[in-house]
Design goal:
This is AlpA family phage regulatory protein. This protein is mainly α. The chain has helices at about 10-15, 20-30, 50-135, and strands at about 5-10, 35-40, 45-50.
Length: about 140
Amino acid sequence: MTTSVLLSLSTLCTKLDTTPNGIRSISLRDPSFPRAIKMGTTRQARVFYDAAEIDNWLESKKRAREQCFNFHASNLNALLRRQFELKYLQFIQVSNAVSHAGRLLSIGGKQLKPRLRRELMELERYLQLSLSFELI
């Protein structure tokens, strides 16, 4: 037979930093909260709580809190990774568009524009020659 350490209601209130009504409220809201052990059959009999059960309950609450935090942290991390990926794709698209625009400007300025100017000047010269023949 194992010996359990029992906590009185006042000791439990001190440990959880609450009042007897707070303990009652917790026990009504949380079905996993350890049940009281009543020492007697009368309505006014003192109640005690098993210290090991209280400690286990507190540990389960801490684990649940950590799991909740880890869940939100992992969701946040996934969201940040997704935002990074989208921003990276956007950067690549803009970079490619700017590179193509740069190539177009370079080729247009160095090759297309001079060639078109030469062709335009030749056509202008032919046009002037044909005009001068018409005047005669």
